[in-house]
Amino acid sequence: MTDIPITDARDRLASVIDEARRGTVYLTRRDRRVAAIVDPETLAQLEADSEELSDIRAVDEAWAETERLAETPIPWEDVKRELGL
């Protein structure tokens, strides 16, 4: 991980992109991280992981709602049968 002031990054964008292939490069303004440059494979993995985590959270919330309302879940086999699957 590398921190680079935005003003420096402007002057050497090509080398900053090359650095990002080896690891995340954080762009800073007034010594605070304001953006990050990552290689495309890392970004794709982060997006996939984020989607997976979102799905897991949605399932957890659905189970919590079921418990909160004291509902009985409908068995998957019954759902498939009702839908003709």
Write a brief caption for the model.
With 85 residues, this protein is of the alpha+beta class. The protein has helices at 6-11, 13-20, 40-68, 76-83; strands spanning 2-5, 25-29, 32-37.
User: Roughly what percent helix?
Assistant: 55-70%
Name the shape in a single word.
elongated
Number of helices: 4
Give the assembly state of these chains.
single chain
Q: Sheet with the most strands?
A: 3 strands, mixed
Radius of gyration: 23 Å
Distance between the termini: 50 Å
Number of strands: 3
Series of secondary-structure elements, N-terminal to C-terminal: EHHEEHH
Describe what you observe in this structure.
The chain is α+β, with helices and mostly antiparallel strands and 85 residues long. It folds into two domains: 2-38, 3-Layer(aba) Sandwich (YefM-like fold), CATH 3.40.1620; 41-83, no CATH class. It has four helices and three strands. Strands 1-2-3 form a three-stranded mixed beta sheet. Strand 2 and strand 3 form a beta hairpin. The chain is elongated and about 65 Å long. The mean pLDDT is 94. This is Antitoxin. Belongs to the phD/YefM antitoxin family. Antitoxin component of a type II toxin-antitoxin (TA) system.
How is this fold's topology laid out?
Blueprint lengths: L1 E4 H6 L1 H8 L4 E5 L2 E6 L2 H29 L7 H8 L2
Parallel strand pairs: 1-2
Antiparallel strand pairs: 2-3
Features:
elongated, YefM-like fold, three-stranded mixed beta sheet
